[in-house]
Design goal:
The protein is of the alpha+beta class. About 60% of the residues lie in helices and about 10% in strands.
Length: about 425
């Protein structure tokens, strides 16, 4: 039996130190010098006996731990993703539409001058992009409000909870509305090109027909929303002006009513004309009285007081005096019956009527101008790319998605390996 000579003896009671097992691959492990045991062990040198072979160390038969971790963390998930995306995942079709929110507005003064110089019409309406309202539409597409409106026309839940779709892609009909909103936002997207204001709508469904139906329904509800916003803005603009018109119109009507009541009670259609006629008549009577007085004075000088002519002139003069007193009393008589009082009241009422009429006409012109401006700023939805029936499924990406998953898992594994190697270095 071959013997192995031992150059130096070793204390058998000394414990043997097992080398530390490295969990990380040598690529991420920094080599450090091994520490020397602080004990009484001497270096052992084995000298084989001539004619014998050196024993071959036997392996334990277990795979390295780092290989097992790599297999569980990277390989198995990658294989599972390949099986799912290649053999299990259901086809999903995407319908795309493009539209823009536009607004009509009147040409500015600069545009008008330029059009006049160029020979064009300055009163034409021009179109502008309503970017702010476009953001309102995209927010509306991703909200619960559009689900409420579409639900009145389409059973959108059944489109995403089809039995022929795979269990990971389809929506469970028993889930809440909040969860469906998240699912909806993952399958329906709407984004804006800031430079042009164009909205791109993409709807992903399990059948081509469903994707087109949902796209058309979203466009219809978005157009209805734009019409509501336009109508609301128009109403807000003209509401205050309409209140002013109604108020001024009521004031004008009240002044007309008061003036008509005065004319009916006084029996005078126009006290001004009546006063003018009375003044003219009074002037004629005064002139005739002056003539009669002159003739009577002449007859008195001629001592003809007893003549019939003198008596007739005296009677006529008395009649003229009575008529003159009556006309004066009509013009400047008692306060309640004088024509001057009626003329003053009529002037006040007529002045109120004229002022109310001017205010009503001004408010009506302002209202018409504001209404015309509001009509020129009408919003509308311009669809220039209608959704069409997709020919082939866009999702899932059966090759690129597993490769991306593999890359991500490998990066995760490498990162964890570097972190573990750093921890080992700090422990040494």
């Amino acid at each position: 039996m071959p013997k192995i000579a031992i150059e130096e003896t070793v204390d058998q009671r000394s414990p043997r130190v097992k080398p530390a097992r490295h969990l990380l691959p040598s690529l991420f492990r920094r080599r450090v010098p091994e520490r020397r045991q602080n004990n009484d062990l001497e270096d052992i040198k084995y000298i084989p006996v001539p004619g014998t072979q050196e024993p071959v160390p036997q392996s334990g038969g277990k795979p390295p731990l780092r290989f097992v971790i790599f297999l569980l963390l990277v390989i198995l998930p990658f294989l599972a993703s390949v099986i799912y995306y290649v053999f299990v995942a259901s086809d999903q079709y995407v319908a795309e539409a493009r539209f823009a929110v536009r607004a009509l507005s009147g040409a500015s003064s600069d545009d008008k001058s330029g059009s006049d110089n160029g020979g064009g019409s300055a009163g034409l309406l021009n179109m502008r992009s309503a970017t702010q309202d476009a953001y309102v539409v995209t927010s509306f597409v991703r909200s619960t409000e559009i689900l409420k409106r579409i639900g009145e026309k389409l059973d959108y839940r059944s489109m995403f909870a089809r039995d022929d779709a795979d269990i990971l892609s389809r929506f469970r009909s028993s889930d809440s509305d909040e969860k469906f909103l998240d699912y909806w936002q993952n399958h329906v997207s709407a984004y804006i090109d800031v430079s042009s204001g164009i909205i791109t709508l993409k709807v992903r469904a399990f059948t081509p027909d469903d994707s087109v139906k949902l796209s058309n329904a979203i466009i219809q509800e978005s157009e209805a929303l734009i019409n509501e916003l336009s109508q609301r803005a128009r109403n807000d603009i003209v509401q205050s002006m309409q209140a002013d018109v109604e108020k001024s119109g009521k004031t004008y009507a009240d002044t007309l009513t008061a003036l008509n009541q005065f004319q009916h009670q006084s029996g005078l259609l126009s006290p001004e004309a009546q006063a003018k006629d009375s003044s003219t008549l009074l002037t004629g009577l005064l002139a005739q009285k002056l003539e009669f007085e002159t003739r009577l004075f002449v007859m008195k000088q001629s001592h003809a007081e007893g003549s019939p002519t003198y008596q007739q002139l005296a009677l006529a003069l008395q009649s003229l005096d009575a008529q003159i007193d009556k006309k004066k009393s009509e013009l400047t008589g008692p306060e309640n019956a004088s024509l001057a009082k009626a003329l003053l009241e009529y002037s006040r009422l007529d002045t109120d009527r004229v002022i109310a009429e001017k205010l009503y006409e001004a408010s009506q012109r302002n209202y018409d101008a504001v209404l015309a401006e509001a009509l020129r700023k009408t919003l509308y939805l311009a669809v220039f790319v209608n959704p069409k029936l997709p020919d082939e499924a866009v999702f899932p990406h059966r090759i690129t998605t597993p490769l991306i998953i593999l890359l991500g898992l490998f990066i995760l594994w490498a990162t964890l390996s570097l972190i573990w190697a750093s921890v080992q270095d700090h422990q040494i």
